[in-house]
Amino acid sequence: MPYRVALYSHDTMGLGHMRRNLLLAQALRHSRLQAVVLMIAGAREASLVTSTAAVDCVALPSLRKDGGGQYHPRHLAVSLKELLALRARTAGAALEAFAPDVLIVDTVP
Questions:
Q1: Within a 10 A sphere around the Cβ of 87, how many other Cβ atoms?
Q2: Which pLDDT score is estimated for 96?
Q3: What is the dihedral angle through the alpha carbons of 20, 61, 91, 52, rounded to the nearest 10 degrees?
Q4: What's the CATH code of the domain at 17?
Q5: pLDDT at 20
Q6: I want to staple 74 with a disulfide (CB 3.0 to 4.6 A). Which of 23, 30, 62, 91 is the partner?
Q7: How high is the pLDDT of residue 33?
Q8: Global pTM?
Q9: pLDDT-based confidence at 18, cuts 50/70/90?
């Protein structure tokens, strides 16, 4: 059975986290492991760029960070608490179904 790797990035500002995870995913796919990789990302654009890397992606409902550093739902008209719960349930369901051997989380450097 192939080695399974899940990569998570929250991506609330810019696409730097997703870009790093995509580079890591490509390296894992082309390594001796030939890993099967699933990205879980907070940027909806992630699903557009992962197709060329032979990587699938689950895009979470997006957040935005305001000038004061506070998080808000980017598009959905729900409370922050509801959006965070939706993101957690979505990511949790994806991880449970994919059953990765390892989960790599990209946080703020």
A1: 18
A2: 98
A3: -40
A4: 3.40.50.2000
A5: 83
A6: 62
A7: 87
A8: 0.84
A9: confident
25, 39 in Cβ contact below 8 A?
A: yes
Q: Pull the structure tokens for residue 2.
A: 């192939």
Q: Is 72 helix (H, G, I), strand (E, B) or coil?
A: strand
Candidates 90, 9, 89, 109; CA nearest to 55 is 9
> Which domain, by its residues, includes 74?
4-106
Q: Is the dihedral of CA 19, 50, 44, 24 positive or negative?
A: negative
In degrees and rounded to multiples of 5, residue 62 shows phi and psi of -90, 155
| Count of domains observed in the chain | 1
Q: Which residues pair with 73 in a beta bridge?
A: 63
Query: How far apart, in whole angstroms, are the C-alpha atoms of residue 81 and residue 28?
Result: 34
pLDDT tens column, 31-79: 998 899 999 988 777 666 656 667 888 989 988 888 998 989 989 999 9
Cα–Cα distance for residue pair 41/45, rounded to 1 Å: 9
